[in-house]
């Protein structure tokens, strides 16, 4: 039995909203990850089972390693189907936004969503949500939006409302947002949920292979190039960063998602407390930024202060509209600003 972490009135309002909706649009943040796509598809399965007309519209392309998921071919990319997307949004009586807490995370999709008169629901697990939805469910303590959704499903529906496909979607989001349950996953109830999803018939080993074991040789060669030639480790700051140009990505036939998780690698180097990835976007004139940190180093605060972003305490991101050289300078400035925290010795356990 999972503990109840929600305001009963909020859950009651959400159930009523779902019950009365007919045409639903579900969306998530730009450059969707496993938790974003997993939560969108899981909610679509859940609402479709209840007789709703449901469409998933995402701002732009998502990683190839998620292409195995059931229903993924029906996802509409706003940047490739403007007119169709706008028509669906205009006809929606409910819009559900998942895995983000500020409409700016939608980029160009922000305008049609914000102009829609449909009722809006936000379900998310990031800190510092903004107020834009009629119903907002924000629980930063959750490992993922998919964990949050599972808990909601069990309160507003029945166990039978979660089919195998939805279970696969939820597991995918939980798995990817915790790095295969290697961080942000100390709550025992997370594994109670995983056990419940496995009882739905999911093959978690196959899911993990689909996500993490479908790499191209070019991806590994690009990774080797990053580690051998691009990674900068500052021992005095206990920090690391790397920066990649579009030309370097093209040289290794870069595919969306190929760099996923690389920002975590420097944190496995002894002494490194924060890692920053800077990468030129292959489609837009911007620098994509990812930040990962350990212990009490606030990656989300750094992202807000220096990179127009945000996220979780130890995992955050942002974007910059500047040259890669300027982005490197900003990253160096950011790391220097956190020198006191980065160079502080970790407290020793009491004898």
Name the CATH class of the largest domain. Answer: Alpha Beta
Tell the overall outline. globular
Strand content: 15-25%
Instruction: Please tally the β strands and state the result.
Output: 12
Read across the widest sheet, the strand sequence of neighbours is: 3-2-1-4-5-6
> What's the end-to-end separation, in Å?
37 Å
- Most strands sheet: 6 strands, parallel
Helix content: 25-40%
Averaging pLDDT over every residue, what do you get? Answer: 95
Q: Give the count of helical stretches.
A: 13
Walk me through the structure.
This protein has 351 residues and is of the alpha/beta class. It has 2 domains: 8-212, inorganic pyrophosphatase (n-terminal core) (Alpha-Beta Complex); 217-343, Diaminopimelate Epimerase, Chain A, domain 1. The chain contains 13 helices and 12 strands. The protein has helices spanning 8-20, 34-49, 82-91, 110-115, 145-156, 164-177, 188-198, 204-212, 217-230, 246-251, 299-306, 324-337, 339-343, and strands at residues 23-28, 53-58, 76-77, 94-98, 119-124, 135-138, 232-234, 239-244, 274-280, 287-293, 310-311, 315-320. The chain has a 6-stranded parallel beta sheet, sandwiched between helices. The chain has a 6-stranded mixed beta sheet with strand order 7-8-9-10-12-11. Strand 4 (94-98), helix 4 and strand 5 form a beta-alpha-beta unit. Helix 5 packs antiparallel against helix 6 (164-177).
SSE inventory with pairings:
Layout (H helix, E strand, L loop, with lengths): L7 H13 L2 E6 L5 H16 L3 E6 L17 E2 L4 H10 L2 E5 L11 H6 L3 E6 L10 E4 L6 H12 L7 H14 L10 H11 L5 H9 L4 H14 L1 E3 L4 E6 L1 H6 L22 E7 L6 E7 L5 H8 L3 E2 L3 E6 L3 H14 L1 H5 L8
Parallel strand pairs: 1-2, 1-4, 2-3, 4-5, 5-6, 8-9
Antiparallel strand pairs: 7-8, 9-10, 10-12, 11-12
């Amino acid at each position: 039995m999972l503990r109840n972490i929600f305001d009963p009135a909020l859950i009651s309002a959400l159930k009523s909203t779902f019950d009365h909706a007919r045409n639903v649009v579900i969306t998530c943040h730009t450059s969707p990850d496993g938790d974003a796509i997993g939560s969108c598809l899981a909610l679509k399965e859940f609402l479709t089972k209840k007789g709703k007309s449901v469409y998933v519209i995402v701002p732009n392309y998502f990683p190839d390693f998620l292409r195995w998921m059931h229903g993924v071919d029906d996802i509409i990319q706003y940047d490739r189907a403007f007119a169709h997307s706008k028509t669906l949004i205009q006809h929606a009586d409910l819009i559900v936004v998942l895995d983000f807490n500020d409409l700016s995370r939608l980029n160009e999709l922000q305008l049609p969503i914000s102009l829609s008169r449909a009722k809006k629901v936000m379900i998310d697990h990031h800190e510092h949500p903004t107020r834009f939805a009629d119903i907002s469910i924000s629980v930063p303590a959750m490992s993922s939006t998919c964990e949050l959704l599972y808990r909601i499903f069990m309160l507003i529906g029945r166990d039978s409302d979660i089919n195998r496909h939805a279970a696969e979607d939820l597991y995918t989001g939980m798995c990817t947002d915790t790095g295969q349950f290697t961080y942000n996953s100390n709550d025992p109830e997370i594994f109670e949920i995983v056990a419940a999803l496995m009882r739905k018939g999911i093959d978690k080993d196959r899911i993990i292979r689909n996500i993490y074991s479908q790499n191209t040789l070019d991806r590994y060669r690009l990774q080797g190039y990053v580690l051998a030639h691009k990674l900068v480790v500052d021992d005095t700051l206990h920090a690391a960063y790397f920066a990649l140009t579009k030309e370097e990505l093209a040289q290794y036939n870069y595919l969306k998602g190929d760099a996923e998780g690389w920002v975590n690698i420097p944190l496995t180097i002894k002494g490194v407390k924060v890692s920053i990835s800077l990468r030129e976007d292959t489609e837009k004139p911007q620098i994509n930024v990812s930040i990962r940190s350990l212990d009490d180093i606030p990656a989300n605060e750094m992202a807000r202060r220096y990179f127009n972003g945000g996220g979780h305490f130890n995992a955050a991101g942002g974007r910059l509209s500047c040259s890669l050289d300027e982005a490197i300078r900003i990253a160096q400035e950011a790391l220097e600003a956190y020198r006191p925290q980065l160079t502080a010795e970790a407290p020793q356990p009491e004898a």
